[in-house]
């Protein structure tokens, strides 16, 4: 009897270059984001160490000092070589536009406002050698003569930092303000409250930080932190000097478990609650029927509006399950009293009440696109994240929108799903809105959620993708060109090195493509990502013997003819591993047999498509590894026709669950072997007993074992 096994990797239900001369790259066309208009002159200008910086207006004191400090010029009596000027330039340059002129005499940066001058300085910065970033200007710097006329495409160019799932130190936040400023970005969206931690000191409700800022991890350790009001004022002022507005986000009515842990009386059930340690969406939210909740919100927002001079306050509004409201007497009484028919309208009631309060304080509100669901109050701005539909709907109803869709702007996602080129291809103006509504798209944000990115990983997630997005937000469409951007990006890395930015890869550092070669062999093609990636690989069989190992910078094909583990380390730069893949292979009887699907797999989770379940590769604990196939809202029902009767010893099928990501095991799995005549000759089933709702990633394998029963079709 041949030793035969069949292994399926299945997934349960889902709810929801151009080359340029090196010296050219020191020129105007090296700047990121690419300026609107560049005129190259003839000749160069030598900026001297200690060059004087002169400003024509006291509103430019910060800008002048910033530049002196950047150049480390120091000497107040030195010859002036840089002039900063507030000037009555053409209206079309707007408040953020600038003109930068380099002549034989020196550098003139002029603008209608200090912000424009600041951006002109950031462009000048990129004309200077990268060493200046660290040491200041130590020797003469030769810069080309010419002129830049520049202004942003969008007024809203933001970054969201989720400082809740993982806390980010105040100094780290300040560092990001500096990085944003270099890229001419002007909004810092500070995500300050979450299920997993409340991070802003509120004097009237001290337990928010005494209790809500700290969580007890599974290993018993305490994790957390918060910003005092003094620290917040410091960040806001630091950002304002750099022309960055800080928008606080206070989440409501969902994502509020940390606040409920501190004040359980604000919930529908009364609790008790613990600050969440898992990631996901949680049932317990603020009670919309309880007046105390609105008193609380108003007190919190009163302190928030005192701390943040921003025009906008972000009130969240996303991912608020209505389950508790459906079952809460107070919430139901509120609905009755207000004549509300469904809980979605109760969410609108909640957000509208808070908006009115904020409007009375002269603020505007922003909410995630869910705030559209029960009807939207006038004046609210929508942040579209579940695609661009929220933006389309918002602007068509006369609202402003900010875009940060999961498809292009979620930088917590791996570069495998969103690489630099994809980010660069993003157009914040959605298709299908009229030219008359384009102005309602204020701009966009990069969203840096931190479930899987504690502070030390944030650089790798954001860079270099955020540079591509900075250009998306700034540079006019007709000037965008990915090849040219990519060349500028290569040129930019030494500057990031000088700044100590621990950037990650531009694209998936390594990819494995599996090709089935005949009946009993898989060819794993290992494909390196960007240039400079070195792959270290090994193939180890189930007895632990190394079948193969080596390293390469090119793509390589490895033949796998028996059960084995393929490990690949992709290294960049100074040898640091940027991606490590472990793939376990089973060489089985159904290898290469395309299954027939009674119901289609989800187009959102196709894995390798029709052959994904028969390519010999097991899925790993990471559900986004490209090997798990998803079925959404329907049963999976697949059959493999072996083409002839053959004896089968066992069948195995693996399933993945990651409940916080709404990926669940099937409730029941049945495996049958069917004879040529259509008779079931072996059968096994398993009921789901792995339904730990809060656990992040788990895999369960279901077997049908036989003594070598003969069958032709395997059905799962
Ligand atoms: C979001 O990602 N829940 C806005
Ligand atoms: Zn309630």
What can you see in these coordinates?
Among the domains are: 6-17 and 507-715, Sandwich (Jelly Rolls), CATH 2.60.120.260; 37-150, Chitobiase/beta-hexosaminidase domain 2-like (Chitobiase, domain 2), CATH 3.30.379.10. The chain is an alpha/beta fold and 716 residues long. The model is unreliable at 10-24 (pLDDT under 50). Helices cover 23% and strands 30% of the residues. The protein has 17 helices and 33 strands. Strand 23 and strand 24 form a beta hairpin. The strands form eight sheets. An eight-stranded parallel β-barrel has the order 9-10-15-16-17-18-19-20, surrounded by six helices. The longest helix is centred in the middle third of the chain and has 18 residues, at 343-360. 45% of the residues are buried. It binds acetamide and zinc ion. Residues 318-319, 368, 385 line the site of acetamide.
Number of helices: 17
CATH architecture verdict of the domain at 6-17 and 507-715: Sandwich
β-strand number: 33
From the N-terminal CA to the C-terminal CA, the straight-line distance is 24 Å
Using the alpha-carbon principal axes, give the shape.
globular
Supply the CATH superfamily name of the domain at 6-17 and 507-715. Answer: Galactose-binding domain-like
Please state the CA-atom Rg, rounded to the nearest Å: 29 Å
In terms of structural class, how would the helical and strand content be classed?
A: alpha/beta
Uncertain regions spanning at least 5 consecutive residues: 10-24
* Share in β-strands: 25-35%
Molecules bound to protein: acetamide, zinc ion
Biggest β-sheet: strands ordered side by side in the sheet: 9-10-15-16-17-18-19-20
Report helical residue fraction.
Answer: 10-25%
Strand count, sense and barrel status of the largest sheet are: 8 strands, parallel, barrel
* Name of the CATH first level of the domain at 6-17 and 507-715: Mainly Beta
Mean pLDDT level: 92
């Amino acid at each position: 009897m041949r030793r035969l096994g069949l292994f399926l990797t299945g997934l349960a239900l889902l709810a929801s270059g151009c080359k340029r001369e090196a010296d050219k790259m020191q020129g105007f066309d090296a700047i990121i984001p690419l300026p609107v208009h560049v005129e190259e002159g003839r000749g160069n200008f030598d900026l001297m160490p200690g060059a004087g910086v002169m400003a024509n207006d006291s509103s430019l004191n910060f800008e002048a000092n910033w530049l002196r400090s950047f150049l480390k010029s120091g000497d107040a009596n030195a010859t002036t070589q840089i002039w900063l000027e507030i000037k009555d330039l053409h209206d079309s340059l707007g408040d953020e536009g600038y003109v930068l002129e380099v002549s034989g005499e020196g550098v003139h940066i002029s603008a209608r406002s200090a912000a424009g001058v600041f951006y002109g300085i950031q462009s000048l910065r990129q004309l200077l050698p990268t060493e200046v970033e660290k040491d200041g200007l130590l020797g003469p710097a030769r810069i080309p003569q010419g002129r830049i006329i520049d202004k942003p495409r969008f007024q809203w160019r933001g970054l969201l930092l989720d400082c809740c799932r993982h806390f980010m130190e105040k100094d780290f936040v300040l560092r990001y303000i500096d990085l944003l400023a270099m890229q001419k970005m002007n909004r810092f969206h500070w995500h300050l409250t979450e299920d997993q931690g409340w991070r802003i000191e509120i004097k009237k409700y001290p337990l928010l930080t005494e209790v809500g800022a700290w969580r007890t991890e599974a290993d018993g350790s305490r994790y957390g932190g918060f910003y005092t009001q003094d620290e917040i004022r410091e960040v806001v002022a630091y950002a304002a000097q750099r022309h960055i507005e800080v928008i606080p986000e206070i989440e409501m009515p969902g994502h509020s478990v940390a606040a409920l842990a501190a004040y359980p009386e604000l919930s529908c059930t009364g609790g008790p609650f613990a600050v969440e340690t898992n990631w996901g969406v949680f049932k317990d939210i603020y009670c919309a029927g309880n007046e105390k909740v609105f008193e609380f919100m108003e007190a919190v927002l009163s302190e928030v509006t005192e701390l943040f001079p921003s025009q906008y306050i972000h009130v969240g509004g996303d991912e608020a399950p209505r389950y508790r409201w459906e079952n809460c007497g107070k919430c139901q009484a509120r609905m009755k009293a207000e004549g509300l028919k469904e809980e979605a309208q109760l969410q609108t009631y909640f957000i509208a009440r808070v908006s009115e309060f904020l409007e009375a304080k002269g603020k505007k509100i922003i909410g995630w696109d869910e705030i559209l669901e029960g009807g939207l109050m006038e004046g609210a701005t929508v942040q579209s994240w579940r695609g661009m539909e929220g933006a389309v709907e918002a602007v068509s109803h006369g609202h402003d929108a900010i875009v940060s869709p999961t498809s292009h702007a979620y930088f917590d996602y791996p570069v495998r799903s969103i690489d630099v080129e994809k980010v660069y291809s993003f157009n914040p103006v959605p298709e299908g809105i009229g030219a008359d509504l384009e102005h309602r798209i204020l701009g966009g944000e990069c969203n840096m959620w931190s479930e899987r990115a504690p502070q030390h990983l944030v650089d790798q997630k954001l860079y270099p993708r955020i540079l591509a997005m900075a250009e998306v937000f700034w540079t006019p469409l007709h000037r965008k060109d990915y090849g040219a951007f990519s060349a500028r990006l290569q040129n930019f890395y030494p500057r990031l090195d000088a700044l100590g930015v621990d950037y990650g890869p531009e694209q998936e550092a390594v990819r494995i493509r599996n090709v089935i070669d005949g009946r009993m062999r898989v060819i794993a093609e290992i494909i390196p990502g960007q240039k400079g990636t070195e792959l270290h690989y090994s193939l180890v069989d189930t007895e632990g013997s190394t079948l193969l190992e080596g390293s390469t910078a090119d793509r390589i094909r490895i033949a796998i003819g028996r059960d084995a583990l393929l490990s690949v380390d992709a290294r960049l730069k100074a040898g640091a591993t940027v991606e490590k893949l472990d793939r376990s292979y089973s060489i089985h009887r159904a290898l290469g047999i395309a299954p027939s699907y009674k119901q289609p797999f989800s187009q959102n989770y196709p894995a390798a498509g029709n052959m994904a379940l028969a390519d010999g590769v097991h899925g790993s604990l990471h559900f986004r590894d490209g090997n798990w196939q998803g079925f959404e809202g329907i049963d999976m029902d697949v059959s493999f026709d072996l083409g002839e009767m053959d004896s089968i010893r066992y069948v195995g099928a693996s399933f993945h669950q990651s409940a916080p990501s709404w990926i669940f095991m099937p409730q029941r799995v049945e495996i049958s072997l069917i004879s040529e005549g259509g008779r079931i000759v072996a059968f096994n089933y398993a009921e789901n007993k792995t339904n730990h709702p809060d656990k992040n990633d788990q895999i369960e394998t279901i077997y049908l074992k036989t003594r070598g029963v003969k069958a032709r079709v395997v059905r799962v």
